[in-house]
């Protein structure tokens, strides 16, 4: 999404402060000829997915209603339709196929019970004290200064 978000500030009147305008170039679906696999790295590295998410993906992947047909049926009702060029639908189906391939690789590497999780807690990160997590950096910095004085 780095290529689609941009901010500009405009100073229309000399005696008033400028204001920011958020410009969205409408590239949420990206380029149709490039698949940015960085987006899917967390799944590829951790091989963890919710059962409900996998079920939804399987329904779209194995039909009866293809993902792109469902998406098109929804988008065609929008007052500013057409929203997507048809080449985006081809890219979406291709990306879904790649996603399913990555998930299949996970099932080849790990047992099902380590992949399909309703919750995930990274055991490599120690659980901290809730009170410590609620403290802001400013609070911590103030206490350090008090101790030094």
UniProtKB/TrEMBL annotation:
Keywords: ATP-binding, Disulfide bond, Glycoprotein, Golgi apparatus, Manganese, Metal-binding, Nucleotide-binding. Mn(2+) binds at residue 24. Residues 1-113 form the FAM20 C-terminal domain. InterPro entries: FAM20, FAM20_C. It is found in: Golgi apparatus. PANTHER family: DENTIN MATRIX PROTEIN 4 PROTEIN FAM20, EXTRACELLULAR SERINE_THREONINE PROTEIN CG31145. Belongs to the FAM20 family. This is FAM20 C-terminal domain-containing protein. It comes from Strongylus vulgaris. The lineage of its organism: Eukaryota, Metazoa, Ecdysozoa, Nematoda, Chromadorea.
């Amino acid at each position: 999404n780095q290529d689609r978000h941009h901010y500009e500030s405009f100073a229309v009147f000399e005696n008033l402060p400028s204001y920011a305008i958020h410009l969205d170039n409408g590239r949420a679906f990206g380029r149709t000829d490039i698949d940015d696999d960085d987006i899917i790295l967390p799944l590829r590295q951790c091989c963890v997915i919710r059962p409900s998410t996998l079920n939804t993906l399987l329904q779209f992947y194995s039909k009866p209603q293809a993902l792109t047909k469902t998406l098109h049926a929804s988008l065609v009702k929008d007052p500013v339709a057409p929203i997507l060029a048809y080449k985006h639908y081809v890219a979406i189906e291709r990306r879904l196929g790649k996603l399913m391939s990555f998930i299949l690789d996970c099932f080849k590497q790990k047992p099902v019970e380590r992949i399909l999780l309703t919750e995930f807690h990274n055991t490599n990160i120690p659980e901290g004290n809730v009170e410590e997590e609620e403290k802001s950096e400013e609070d911590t910095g103030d206490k350090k200064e008090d101790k030094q004085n």
